[in-house]
Structure formats: structure tokens, C-alpha cells
Amino acid sequence: MNLERTQSRPARSLRKLAWIGLLLAGVMAALAGLGHLAQAQPLVAPHADVFTEGFEGGLGVWQLSPPVSGVGWRQVSASDQYGKAFSGSKAMWFGDPVGGQYGGNCFFTDPSCPRYAGELTYSGTPIAIPSTFSLTLMTFHSWELTEKSFPFGCSSGDSGTPYCEFDVRQVWISSTTDSNWQLKWHTDQGTSQVPIVERQWRGASIDLSAYKGKSIRIRFRFDTIEADSHFNPGNTDAANKPAGWFVDDIRLFAFTPSSFVYLPIVRK
Hints:
Elements: H1 2-38, E1 47-53, E2 62-64, E3 72-77, E4 90-95, E5 117-122, E6 127-128, E7 135-145, E8 155-156, E9 162-163, E10 168-175, E11 182-186, E12 202-207, E13 215-223, E14 244-255
Antiparallel strand pairs: 1-14, 2-5, 3-4, 4-14, 5-13, 6-13, 7-12, 7-14, 8-9, 10-11, 10-13
């Protein structure tokens, strides 16, 4: 009996090892399957990049309106005295390269102060908006320091937030079959519903889906509206420089929304 027990223990141990081996083989097979899953690519909703502009090159496709007393749109580098860029090294700026603001150095009581306004217009091959996608968005980054930063002379909105009609920034769109430019984005707010955001880069977006199947042009416009007032006139404080409007990283992309939820897959 003792000998029989002694002989059966190794046999039982071998059977246990066999079961453990089968179990481990199953686990390894399952992990192998998960490994293939971990390497799978996430699904991407149908989309198309339509147009991009970071102003890193020249201005061959952009037309600048004539400056007013030397103040207007110009390409600047982040390394310039009054330069800024959201990404890369260059952007477009409506401002005064001499004083670092815009509108010279005169006070609002001086009737000789001109009205500073100017346009930055895309003049290249009209941008074709695909008809195969349901939505098309235009995005860009904006940095502003204008009269809106100082609520003197401004009104108070319905919740006490100041708003100004002056120093407006606008984006206009026109199709090649329609010579009438349409205002699509602006900051000349009339209520407190639109927040005043200045002195920082911020993203802006415009729905261009109405132009599906057409070709468009883009225009940025800055306007002080008044002929006798502009941002903090006469103030030479370095904290108030640069002032005006910087625009960078324009992008147009088309896509079709999906009801699927796309989750990232972690790669091992």
C-alpha cells in the first residue's frame, strides 16, 4: 500500500502539470489574439484636408490692402521686436512696425487721427469645397490687443460685460460665382453673449458647409471704425505692445459625422 501510494503521487503530479500546461496554452493563445487587436488601427471618419496656410513662406497667394500711414497687414516673425506666431516662426499682423501698436501716436481728441483699416485677401486659385462631405469647417488662430481690452467708451451688456463696437476683426467669404462677400465671423459684438477674449492665442472656427461644391476666397478685415480713436493712444508702455491683430494657422477640412464612437487602441 505504501509503495503503491508512493508510485501514484508522481502520476498525479504529472496529470496536474498537464492540465496546467493546457491552461497556460489557452491563456497564451488568448493573449496572442489580444496582441493582434492591440496592433489594429483605429477607425477614422471620412475626411479631407482642403486647405492649410501657416504663412511660413512668402505672400504669393495673399493680397494686402495699402497701409494707412504705414499701418496695415504684414508678415512677421516670432523673432521680430513686435512679432508673434502660434506655431512655426511666422504669422500675419495688422499693426504698426514702428510703434508696436496700430494707429500711430495720437489721442482720440485729435481730429487728424485717420481711420485705420485694412484687408488680407486670399488671391490664389479659388479653394474648392468638396461636395462629397456633409460639413466643411475653417479654423484659424487669433491673437488680439485692441480697444476691446480697455472698456473706456464701451457699453455694458445685459449681464454687465462690456462690449465695444470699435476695432473690429472680421472674416469674409466669397464664392467665385458670387461677387458679394459675406461676413462669416466677427468680434464687433453687440451683446454680452460673445465674450471678449484678448491678449492670448485662441482658436476660431467657421462653418463653410453652405459653400459645398463651390470654390471660395477668404478675407480678413481689421477696422478701427472711428477716425479719432484707437487702442490706448499715446501710451508707450511696453506692456501694451504689440497691439493689433495676429492671424496664424488657417485650415479648411471637410468631413462627414458618424454615429460610431471611435476609441483609441493602446499599442503594446
